UniProtKB/TrEMBL annotation:
The species this protein was found in: Luteimonas yindakuii
PANTHER family: CONSERVED EXPRESSED OXIDOREDUCTASE (EUROFUNG), GALACTOSE_LACTOSE METABOLISM REGULATORY PROTEIN GAL80
Gal80p-like C-terminal domain segment(s): 135-274
GO molecular function: nucleotide binding
InterPro entries: Gal80p-like_C, Gfo/Idh/MocA-like_OxRdtase_N, Gfo/Idh/MocA_oxidoreduct, NAD(P)-bd_dom_sf
Identification of the protein by name: Gfo/Idh/MocA family oxidoreductase
Residue ranges of every copy of the Gfo/Idh/MocA-like oxidoreductase N-terminal domain listed in the record: 5-128
Amino acid sequence: MSKRIRVGIIGLNPGIHWAAMAHMPALAALAHDYEVVGVANTSLASAQRAAAAFGLRDAFENAQALVESPEVDLVVVTVKVPHHHALVSAALNAGKHVYCEWPLGNGLAEARELADLAETHGVVAAVGTQMRVAPEIEHLRQLIADGYVGEVLSTTLVGSGGQWTGQTDAAHAYLEDVRNGATLLSIPLGHTLAGFRDVLGNFASLSAQLIVRRTSTHVTDTGETIARTTPDQVLVQGTLESGATYSIHYRGGVSRGVNLLWEINGTEGDIQVTADSGHAQLTQLSVRGARGDATALTPLMPPANTYEGWPDDVMARNVARIYALIAADIRTGTRSAPGFNDAVALHETLDAIERSNAALHTSGAVSPESSR
């Protein structure tokens, strides 16, 4: 391997696209660790346009050519969820390290297959649940561990997903079909649950409902109306392994109020996390708290120096913090970045939510452990 880790990105396009807005600036901030050498898209022409726009050396004819290239050490998969399994499998079978966006697979079965394949090849296989490494979440986890609120009694989480409003464009119409695995449950709530679990622990029991309130969607740039099969309301409640109770409501669209409100209530104090978006992995989180005799919440943000050396933009910052862990894992053999086995555990929770919804009128609450 060269001194810098050579990166090939599958799914990089100029403009308002995730890889361009988050991955490229994140990698630029870690230029001492990484060199982006090439791109593969749905066509060679698309790859060539991206390579020219970003000044990359190689535009690969297709994804298979990228994963087989001896010039690529780390394959980054930033395409739609239904394509994750095939592309990640190809990269792993080529012996490459992989960074795959969340969700890892289109459902639990695919995630398990990819985790097993990564284990077989012994490579670094990371998943983009970047809320877990957000400075505010690491700080919040320490506050809870240090007993800021005392014993956690309950927690309430309400978030807005932005999409799933009854209106979309053709590029995002695939989000309306539950079969594509890119849903309100799997994307904004899934990302947020990754951080939620790090702070407060796993679910011990849950009862869930997935509700479709808007049954059709207007596609603005084509004028057509399509059926929606993915829920725009997600309700989950139960107990955590600590014994604390939790209640979660994620909704489609955007609220005119706060779009993320997470409260943690304990015997000694309270913490409130808010943000402008329910996609907690890509928005600035504000943490406030009060304990003891205090009657008003005050800021509880990480120290200012926590942010030094990282991109100012939140999306790029959190992704860069994942890449920093991946670089250390590749060079030292550690496994500090969120990995495929972590992704499987999160997929198991989402699967338990789906099964609870399906069994609502028959078996009641479902244990997340029963999916393992």
